[in-house]
Amino acid sequence: MILPMSFTSKLPFELFVGLRYTRAKRKNHFISFISLTSMVGIALGVAALIVVLSVMNGFQAELRSRILGVASHIEVTGANNKLESWQALIPRIKQNPQVREAAPYITAQGMLSFGEGVQGAIVRGIIPLAEDKVADLGSHMKAGSLNDLKAGEFGIILGSDLAFNLGAAMGDKVVVMSPQGQFTPTGIVPRIKQFKVVGLFQIGMYEYDAGLALIHMDDAAKLYRMDGTVSGVRLKIDEIDDAPKVSGQLNQSLSTPLLSNVNKDLATGDTVTNTVGSQYFVTDWTQQHANFFKAVQMEKRVMFIILALIVAVAAFNIVSTLVMAVTDKRADIAIMRTFGASPRSIMGIFIVQGSLIGVIGTIAGAVVGVIVALNIDTIVPFIENLFHVQFLAKDVYYISDLPSKLEWNDVITIVLMSFGLSLLATLYPSYKASQINPAEALRYE
After folding, report:
1. What angle do CA 32, 36, 37 make, to 5 degrees?
2. Considering just the CA atoms, what is the radius of gyration of the chain in Å?
3. Minimal CA–CA distance to 335: which of 429, 431, 441?
4. Are 88 and 135 in contact (CB under 8 A)?
5. Is residue 149 part of a domain?
6. Does a structural domain hold residue 187?
């Protein structure tokens, strides 16, 4: 098909000839085959990169949501696991506009026993209504609810794996032993209290499901003798990604003493200021689980590099395509040079031809990758039903569905990288084409 003169006249010379070379039927079909192979390879590499990174983003988001179902966005704690004057501290914390909710808690280690089963666990004392506002634990309850924890009734909610290891079920009486003992004439005796199982939860993280038990904060204060004090305050903010920033702001604002008492030293007569509540430790979820998320991020980078090599190999096949195309078009290049085409124009023609292969492959791969990433929750079950396989077995993995989260920043990065590699691959053959001597090329024609 010949382009209309009104259209071709508007195109630059290099672009017009480069497009004609790309569309023209070649005598050497091997060149066309390599061009097609390069195009398909780039498309497959780009699509694979987008899909794999989207799945890894999905796993990261899923695990993060499960972790934050138990952990808080930010925690404010005190020295020696004690935070005094927490009732006055919460209004100060909420002065930060990004802090949405706050909930006090008591946390300590405990030994749980039922029948012959004995398990160590973290015992967390909570206020159910407040806790439900700072964490999503309520949505992970398998039996019962957080509201079943009532002060003075000594109820307990166990993780599903912890209950399984103990052999306990709903309504059973579980003995909780505190490591902080009390002194008696016979020696130090651990404090023991019997709790009734009123609920079970399953987060999908073994760390929590097998090692966390929840009781009411008033019951925890009695068991661990923390009347009037708590271990810390859990916070929920508007944007979880801003947790490090908000944590730094709170750390700075809370460095101001909560209460100051001015007295005189009786010995010297000097004025002495005693500060109360000036020692706060503010941590966010990125610090509490830093190693885990760093490992996930490192894995994502490594996968990006590995899959980018597929794109690089396919892109550099363009070098072979253009080298053979230049050899095939030596006479045409010589004729264009004799008609006044500059070496720069010749170089531009073959850059256009090679870049077009990369552009088509990149766009095709991006479209396929985005479609697959957005519909992976439909595609994977279809493949599993078709071949009667299961990629993530429910009895092995807590996450039995393949999650996907498409991030357009990743797509843009992949597209730009692919196009950049394709453009880079065109430079050497295009430069060699521009250096062809017309007299030498036409000598044997």
Report:
1. 115
2. 34
3. 441
4. no
5. yes
6. yes
Q: Is 223 helix (H, G, I), strand (E, B) or coil?
A: helix
* Same domain assignment for residues 409 and 386: yes
SS (H, E, C) 381-438: HHHHHHHCCCCCCCCCCCCCCCCCCCCHHHHHHHHHHHHHHHHHHHHHHHHHHHCCCH
Name the amino acid, one letter, at 105: Y
Residue 58 shares a structural domain with residue 82: no
Distance CA 68, CA 293 (A): 13
Do residues 104 and 226 both lie within one domain?
Answer: yes
Residue 216 lies in a domain: yes
198 with 316, same domain? Answer: no
Domain extent, residue 178, equals: 74-285
- Residues near 113 by beta carbon (within 8 Å), at least 6 away in sequence: 119, 166, 174, 175, 177
Q: Looking at the structure, do residues 246 and 393 belong to the same domain, yes or no?
A: no
How far is Cα 381 from Cα 406, in angstroms, rounded to an integer?
19
Q: Which helix (H) or strand (E) holds 36?
A: helix 29-67
Q: Check: CB of residue 195 under 8 Å from CB of residue 176.
A: yes
Q: Tell whether 303 and 407 lie within a shared domain.
A: yes
Q: Residue 50 falls within a domain, yes or no?
A: yes
- Tokens representing 43 are 């498309």
Contacts for 399 with CB less than 8 Å, ≥ 6 apart? 59, 62, 63, 204, 392
- Chain center to CA of 341: 53
Phi, psi of 188 (to 5 degrees): -85, 125
- 143, β-bridge pairs: 200
Q: What is the mean pLDDT of each run of 10 residues along the chain (445 residues)?
A: 44 68 57 78 92 89 80 86 86 91 92 91 93 86 92 93 93 89 64 92 86 94 88 90 88 65 44 50 83 82 88 84 81 80 84 87 94 89 81 62 87 93 89 80 63
What pLDDT was estimated at residue 23? 59
Strand partners, 213: 123, 158
Q: Are 254 and 290 in contact (CB under 8 A)?
A: no
- Residues 307, 269: one domain? no
